[in-house]
Amino acid sequence: MKSLSLIVALLLSSVSYAQVEQEIDSFGGNEALYIKAKALNPEVENEVIQNRFTNRTNRFEVAPEFAGVFGGDAYNHTNNVGMNVHYHINPAWSVGLKYSYSFNTLTPEGKAMVAKASEEAATNPKDPKYLYPQVVYPKTETMGLVNWYPIVGKLSFGKWGVAHFDTYLTAGYGSMELSSGSTPAAMMGLGFGFWVNSNVTTRLEYRAQQYKAEYYDKTENMLTNTASVQMGWML
After folding, report:
1. Strand pairing of 200-214 and 219-234?
2. Dist. CA 74–CA 71, nearest whole Å
3. Same-domain pairing of 35 and 110
4. 116 is in which domain, residue-wise?
5. Is residue 185 one of the residues assigned to a domain?
6. Cβ(72)–Cβ(66) under 8 Å?
7. Do 12 and 67 fall into the same domain?
8. Within a domain: residue 48?
9. Rounded to whole angstroms, how far apart are CA atoms 25 and 14?
10. What is the mean pLDDT of each run of 10 residues along the chain (235 residues)?
11. pTM to 2 decimal places
């Protein structure tokens, strides 16, 4: 009797397992049921645009700039004012143009060399031992730009609200007008954009730039560092 009960239990278990297996198989093969199940928990490919503060696709941005330049000619210090115009292809990429105008002043070393040469010229005008140094300084700069914006985020300031930001990489190529003539120039950099509202952003940017300067007796390969502040308006 016990053997018979055991056989019946095994048969019922097999039937139950077969039914479950058939239901699982039919679930995988039933396209309509599969679509309904997928609708309950869809696999959505989220682009980073969904988390951005504003949509920049097919929009222009105008960004005036003030920049300080470190490096270059040892006797000269440069500050730039300029304008950037960006066309945002999509939220991750933009292309643009940069134009900068340079203001130059002598460094303390440069002022000392000029003073020394002036003194020597006054005391020994026919055969001075010290000559005025040649200073090669930038006048203007024009570049094409490519920008990539890979990271977007938010910073919470508690009761003061939430600040939206994005970071970007930038690269450019163009020409510089120097006191000794024009020269090709290339740059690479990174930046941080902080949104004031949906149309206004501030940009803090660092760039490394390379160009060549022609002196009387040599050609110098210049590598400068530029830190800039920009204010961008979306059009």
Report:
1. antiparallel
2. 7
3. no
4. 56-234
5. yes
6. no
7. no
8. no
9. 16
10. 47 46 47 54 45 78 96 92 96 95 93 85 79 89 96 73 83 95 96 86 94 90 95 91
11. 0.70
